[in-house]
Design a protein that fits this description.
This protein is an alpha+beta fold. It has 13 helices and 23 strands. The protein has helices at about 30-40, 125-130, 165-170, 170-180, 200-210, 215-220, 220-225, 260-265, 275-285, 340-355, 360-375, 410-425, 435-440, and strands at about 15, 20-25, 45-50, 60-65, 70-75, 80-85, 100, 105, 115, 120-125, 145-150, 150-155, 185-195, 240-245, 250-255, 290, 290-295, 300, 305-310, 315-320, 325-335, 385, 405. A hairpin with a 2-residue loop joins strand 11 and strand 12 (about 150-155). Bound molecules: FE2/S2 (inorganic) cluster and fe (iii) ion. FE2/S2 (inorganic) cluster binds near residues 88, 91, 93, 110 and 112. FE2/S2 (inorganic) cluster binds near residues 91, 108, 110, 111 and 113. Belongs to the bacterial ring-hydroxylating dioxygenase alpha subunit family.
């Protein structure tokens, strides 16, 4: 901790420098910075919890995490969702030890305290005989604040945070490309695939936020397999945009033309029978290129650790597990309007490309793991990284793509991600992440 115990190895104001476009690599490896992240980034931001379709009926629940904190998301009888800490108020045992299902109550397996689906403490063994005056109302599970946007449920511990809608801000129109491109929106398919990667969470979150650049090198093998006429290292037929949220650290990049291989990999949109491109264009109020709505080659991060890759129908959370490890929780995200056969086709395609054993997924994880290994070196942790790509490019000139710069190959969204992250990290009392000041804080 910064104020108790060892200090971080770098000053908090030197972690990221927007002017010079440099990143201190200590941010991926320093344990004190990680502790500070749990407090100032994760406990103050809106965090993705589940898709609405993961828990459709009353009593349906999903045990997940908000950063390192285990939580349970439960559908209530009135249709709402509660998210509470998966921690018994007696001695801290998990009150739910399964991954998900349907429950009428959660009973702690240590001494038997029982909580209803709203997290209220409802039963205590030997209460009459052994507790003089236990006010059970005071001892319910700790509740998070919950909100949702077009099928995605988020929660935060920050009761003063802006609404989820304000938090997402201008990133909403880019999320809409994925979430609202056809009637009925999206649904989650298949299970949640979970795996561990020994790397810092920011490598994954930043890459999905901003990095369209790595594809032509890192993914060249599967690209050539999918599209044999692809030229190694030649990205010249790709053009696209990169969006940096005006505040909040969210970002996305997408190709507008070319990138033929992406269409051979992705199965979304045009592959859904009856998909109406003109309607999608109107719904999302965004442009399409030729026959293709632009969103389908898009990957995006909602700050801090939720990402979607529309081209591969995958959504995932990068749960941090210390400075050098993440648990990836990924699920298939498809248009509800697709037929069962098409959904199955998408599910298989996602498993084969971007999933634990997916050929493309391996390319990305390999880089993050290797970078993290290099950072075991003392000198390596003191040698700045370059994040200058596309700096100074004009923003917001194309009304079709608000707040974008005119090249997918840039690090504009990454700079937005780190600028917001650094603001949170230096915000001692949490005032920056409160609703009022947040609304005025252009980044
Ligand atoms: Fe849960 Fe004791 S820890 S009942
Ligand atoms: Fe990749």
């Amino acid at each position: 901790r910064n104020d108790a115990g060892a200090a971080p190895s770098v000053s908090l104001t030197d972690l990221f420098d927007e002017k010079s476009g440099t990143i201190s690599p200590a941010i991926y490896a320093d344990p004190q910075l990680y502790e500070l992240e749990l407090e100032r980034v994760f406990s103050r931001s809106w965090l993705f919890i589940a898709h609405e379709t993961h828990i459709p009926k009353a009593g349906d629940y999903l045990a997940t995490y908000m950063a390192e904190d285990p939580v349970i998301a439960v559908r209530q009888k009135d249709g709402g969702v509660k998210v509470f800490l998966n921690q018994c108020r007696h001695r801290g045992m998990k009150i739910c030890r399964t991954d998900g299902g349907n429950a009428k109550a959660f009973t702690c397996t240590y001494h038997g305290w029982a909580y209803d689906i709203g997290g209220n403490l409802v039963q205590v063994p030997l209460e009459q005989q052994s507790f003089a005056c236990l006010d059970k109302k005071q001892w319910g599970a700790r509740q998070a604040r919950v909100d949702s946007y077009k099928g995605l449920i988020f929660a935060t511990w920050n009761m003063d945070a802006p609404t989820l809608s304000d938090y997402l801000g201008d990133a909403k129109s880019y999320l809409d490309l994925i979430l609202d491109r056809s009637e009925g929106g999206t649904e989650a398919i298949g299970g949640i695939v979970k795996w561990v990667i020994p790397c810092n969470w920011k490598f994954a979150a930043e890459q999905f936020c901003s990095d369209m650049y790595h594809g032509a090198t890192s993914h060249m093998s599967p690209m050539m397999a999918a599209s044999p006429d692809t030229l190694p290292g030649d990205p010249t037929d790709f053009s696209g945009r990169q969006f940096r949220a005006s505040r909040g650290g969210h970002g996305t990049g997408f190709f507008v033309e070319g990138a033929e291989w992406l269409w051979r990999v992705g199965q979304a949109g045009e592959h859904v029978s009856g998909f109406d491109i003109a309607a999608a264009e109107q719904r999302t109020n965004l442009h399409r290129s030729g026959k293709r709505p632009v969103g389908f080659s898009q990957h995006m991060t909602v700050f801090p650790n939720f990402s979607i890759f529309a081209g591969a129908n995958t959504a995932r959370v990068w749960h941090p597990r210390g400075p050098g490890e993440i648990e990836v929780w990924a699920f298939g995200l498809v248009d509800k309007a697709a037929s069962d056969a098409e959904k199955e086709q998408m599910r298989l395609m996602t498993l084969r490309t971007f999933s634990a054993a997916g050929t493309w997924e391996q390319d990305d994880g390999e880089n993050w793991v290797e970078v993290q290994r290099v950072l075991r070196g003392h000198e390596a942790r003191r040698t700045l990284f370059n994040a200058q790509m596309g700096a100074g490019a004009p923003r917001g000139e194309d009304p079709t793509f608000p707040e974008t710069i005119t090249n997918a190959f840039a690090e504009e969204a990454a700079r937005g991600f780190y600028a917001h992250w650094q603001k949170l990290m230096t915000d001692v009392d949490g005032s920056f992440s409160k609703a009022g000041s947040y609304a005025d804080a252009a980044e």
